[in-house]
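Title: Prediction job returns without error message
Component: structure pipeline
Severity: low
Priority: P3
Assignee: unassigned

Description:
Job completed but the reporter wants confirmation the result is attached to the right record. Sequence as submitted:
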Amino acid sequence: MAPGLGRRLLRLAVRWAAHSVACSEAVAECAGPTVRGRISVVHLTVDTDRFTPGPADPEVRAQLGAEADEPLVGILGRWDPEKGIDLLVEAMTRLGDDLGDTRLAVVGAVHGASQEFGRQLRERAAAALGPRVRFVPPRRDVPAVLRSLDVLVNASKAEPFGLTVLEAQACGIPVIGTRSGGIPEFVTDGETGLLVSPGDPEAMARALRRVISDPMLRARLATNARRRVDRFNRDARRADVLAGLYRKVLRS
């Protein structure tokens, strides 16, 4: 699919739909003012029985490329230009000698037309970080992966919601995200995570240095975020909200 074609098709579908549901205010705004009144925002939710705090699994950490005493940064998702993985790699090179033992785990896979990007990304990352970076195929044990990280990063240029960020918060892991799309709707900078501008590797490096070098900050961000995650608990009856919208549309 050509870049941007999916979004154009979605805008067309929303224009013709009686009512639409968006996963964030950011997504709803993308549809334009003429149809905004026919869009309801229903945020995604997280299963807090599955995604819950717990000790890191040493075996999982080793599979992600880090020993117990080495800081581990992780990013999860598909490998394409929109996800900003190349920006995170660049930020990692700017951490400085005092954080030179920090590891990066890139968990996910290449999809569709991004095969060449994925190949180049791995080559650039290996050249820049050597053994400090590990590319890991998609995993089924996502909660265990998240609990094994010291910080979860979402570096996307445009993120509709950012569910992995919410899942990491539910697991008690501090997060760094971009001021992009839906992420600022549930991450408050300096309170429940750190936010940086998309496409700014130096800002990302500063955020990484702050989190990695300050255990008290990590603990505070994780604790605050875990409290707020309750608003996005799967038990918050999202299905009931959607069913109510469907009934409303059918009656109209």
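Comment from assignee: result matches the submitted record. The chain has two domains: 5-45+233-251, 58-231.
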